[in-house]
Amino acid sequence: MKNGAGLPDSTTDQYLSAMAKITISDLCAATGARFVGPQALADSTVCTALTDSRSLVTPHGTVFFALKTARADGHDYIEGLYNAGVRFFVADNGFDPTTYPDAAFLIVSDTLHALQESAMLIRRRFNRPLLAITGSRGKTVVKEMLYGALAPHMHIARSPRSYNSHIGVPLSLWQIEPDSQLGIFEAGISGTGEMPVLQEMLRPEIGIFTALTAEHTRGFADDTEKCREKALLFKGCRRIIYDSSNPIIADTLTQMYPDTALTPCDSYADMCIAAADCLGITLVPEQIPAAVQSRIDITDSADNATLAYDYFTCDLSGIETALDTVRRRSAPRRPLNVVLSDILCDTGDKDMAYSCLETLLKQFGVSAVFAAGPEISERVARFTSGITAHLCPGGPAEVVRYLSSRPHLIYNTTVYINGTDKRHFRQIYTWLSTRGNVTRLEVNLDSLAANFRHYRSQLPPQTGLIGMIKAAGYGCGDLEVARTLQSIGADMVAVAVVDEGVALRQGGVTLPVMVLDPWCEDMRAIFANNLQPTIIDCSRDMLGRLEHNADSEGVHDIYVHLKLDTGMHRVGLREEDIDTFIEILKQHPRIHLASMFSHLATADCLDLDSYTTGQLNLFERMTRRIIAGLGYDVPRHILNTAGITRYGRTHVYDFARLGIGLYGISPLDAADNAALVPVARLVTRIIALNSYPAGTTIGYGCRGVLSRPSVIATIPVGYADGIDRHLGNGNASFLVNGTMCPTVGNICMDLCMIDVTDCHTAVGDEVEIFGPDAPIQRLSDALGTIPYEVLARVSPRVKRVYYRE
Predict the structure, then answer these.
(1) What is the pLDDT of residue 17?
(2) Is 468 left (phi over 0), alpha (psi -120 to 50) or beta?
(3) In whole angstroms, what is the distance from residue 15 CA to residue 522 CA?
(4) Which of the ends of the chain has fewer CB neighbours closer than 10 A, N or C?
(5) Nearest of 249, 187, 240 to residue 213 by alpha carbon
(6) pLDDT reported for residue 297
(7) Residue 108 exposed, middle or buried by CB count within 10 Å (0-12, 13-18, 19+)
(8) How many C-beta atoms lie closer than 10 Å to residue 763's C-beta?
(9) For the segment 133-165, what is each residue's pLDDT rounded down to a tens digit?
């Protein structure tokens, strides 16, 4: 067998044999598919379902379901997967498979339905108990706590991380293995009518309802309707375990399932104990592991290394899904190293578990393993696949000592870190990530994705969404933001200058990149990196320069975006110049308009609606004239963040541009802000505490004068980090252990002082400058400016830490 991983065939076969297998003929029968391909392949078996081409690990045994979404078509990736060695595909009726004569195609009317039907086949064959979990929050936490408690007793199949959607649930069911003794799966919905298909796939015997909170409220009339929709998951359950603190849950379950045993619980741990009891296993609170998070922190270290710390369970399933995420976010061709503890194993067969781990690491291209534990050190020493082994049987402390004397081992690499003992294992990540500046900007990429989806929901399905990541992603980091936008279905990203676009390309971003700045000294970089420039007038010189530099890079067709001045009066083609522009552009047939756009000056000013209406009308008039003059259709966009909220459904264009709203800040009122999730959190730590009597002066110029005996904390953040000097002298407060503490004296270049007299604190305690608990608007209001400026001014020297929950 050709496995493409550089491993002995028997090693990969052993890994795959542990997974569920379905024959292609059975898959055809279950999905009602028409088989196209060599008849010999009909008896082949597959064990991995794939819906995202970027997640391909090993082509052997993989079947790709070509799903169609509003923003992408999986059929576009069949050729690339075929070239990578995949030979089994599920495609829709409109796809022609004849160009792939040695591949097997299952032709269906609906590929998503076929994926779900395949999961139902797996579920029918699984005759062991299955437990399903739903709720507004806590699904993954309870699942992992229960898994950790039951792993010593049985072999468990479970949802990877937070796979709980119409796509995630069937992919989760494909995780069931022949010797699985229990299934634990999540199910999540965001609107009415979504749960029945999840219930039909899972058909649980035991159900857990974790909580009912404000998440996803927009998809339901009220909390009662939301509760009823979620509770549909429990049809046919013999026992339902639920959160006793919410009377809506209790009332709903009693009404819907009067003959089912209901077990109220006060905590997640109690839910785990009750679920185990249903399975005939007695657990005590001490046997319930601490809650884990489905979160990966990604940041840079002083060694030019990218660090990825995983808060999730350290087992094969958790490591596999994490490495898929980390691999996508690593710079191209950067070596990938892992630091792992002894792994959690529920099979009882340690040899099999570590053999599978070796296969997994090799398939993901891991260069070296730092084994932080006695068991994994012993096992990694036996690896035969060429992965370099660094053995630290003493655990995290030994890894820190080992790397302290060998920093070159991680220089310019990506390092994935995961361990079963999160409290001690975090020492490694903390040591690696905090050897530089302790001040950091935490960027929640899941919150960014949630904000993207919020604005996406306010636009018609046919309108594409462009993510604005100029100014280093409004200070949050353009590369990580762009990678996230690429993964969640953005149609394009826009940057201010060419250098920003080049950095995205070098970081592996493949989305179309629009460059807003109309002037560039090095136009060759535009074409060398497949960027799309902006033009603002009918300058023959600009068009000529574009053609000359395109020729130097071997580019014939040139795609540009045309900026129109409809009222901002900064740059852009004016209405009176349209005829001249059309005449000149026709003389350059190689240059094509990729889009026409303008910018609303007053969309966030409710008292200037007439001005906004005038801009929208002028944009309509100008674009119609240009399209008529050029003789071809040109995509259009004018709506910004505020424009999407106010005009997204009434003024329909080909694209809209999402800027500050992407980062969880609305330019409109507090009600609009309430629908968003803050993305950025600027934090630092107290480095000194001193007590002073009343009358003591603090800082430069003795501007801070204490009016009472006070405790003053010094924190390592100043105006060189982006803290405006006008925020000193009590003009702003920062959050310390739940208490707002005002600044004292002038803001220094690298430091500032805050009064913590009314706060219980110690050296090393965290200080939140702005974030979810200390809204950034407080600072912008104090400065008489806008949140955009405060966020964008966070200095590049402040470490960015990226994470997903």
Answers:
(1) 42
(2) beta
(3) 51
(4) N
(5) 249
(6) 85
(7) buried
(8) 11
(9) 999 988 999 999 999 899 888 889 999 878 889
pLDDT digit string, tens, across residues 243-260? 999 999 999 999 999 999
**Lowest mean pLDDT: which of 46-50, 81-85, 424-428?**
424-428
% the chain with pLDDT above 90: 73
| 42, 129 contact by CB (below 8 A) | no
User: In sequence order, what are the residues at sequence separation of 6 or more whose Cβ sits closer than 8 angstroms to the Cβ of residue 796?
Assistant: 472
Torsion angle, alpha carbons of 475, 449, 77, 492, to 10: -50
SS3 at position 431? helix
Q: Are 196 and 169 in contact (CB under 8 A)?
A: no
Report the alpha-carbon angle 671-644-136, nearest 5: 50
The mean pLDDT value for 731-744 works out to 97
As given in the structure block, the two tokens for residue 169 are 């649930």
pLDDT at 190 over 90: no
Q: Is the separation of the CB atoms in 314 and 426 below 8 Å?
A: no
Closest residue by Cα to residue 27 from 94, 115, 99: 115
3-state secondary structure of 121: helix
> 224 vs 168, 220, 255, 450, 650, CA distance in Å?
25, 9, 12, 23, 31
Question: Is 750 exposed, middle or buried (CB count within 10 Å of its CB: 0-12, 13-18, 19+)?
Answer: middle
User: Does the structure show a pLDDT above 50 at 8?
Assistant: no
Query: Measuring CA to CA, how many Å separate 499 from each of 354, 428, 496?
Result: 45, 34, 9
Let me know: does 389 contact 399? Beta carbons within 8 Å: no
- Strands 34-36 and 104-108, how do they pair? antiparallel
Query: Tell me: the pLDDT tens digits for 408-422?
Result: 898 889 999 999 888
pLDDT of residue 791: 96
Question: Both tokens of residue 557?
Answer: 């067709």
- Verify whether residue 700 is a known catalytic residue: yes
**Inter-residue contact 526 to 549 (CB < 8 Å):** yes
Question: Distance between CA atoms of 228 and 238, rounded to whole angstroms?
Answer: 18
> Which of 470, 563, 653, 802 is the catalytic position?
470
Give the 3-state secondary structure percentages of the chain, helix then strand then coil, rounded to 5: 40, 20, 40
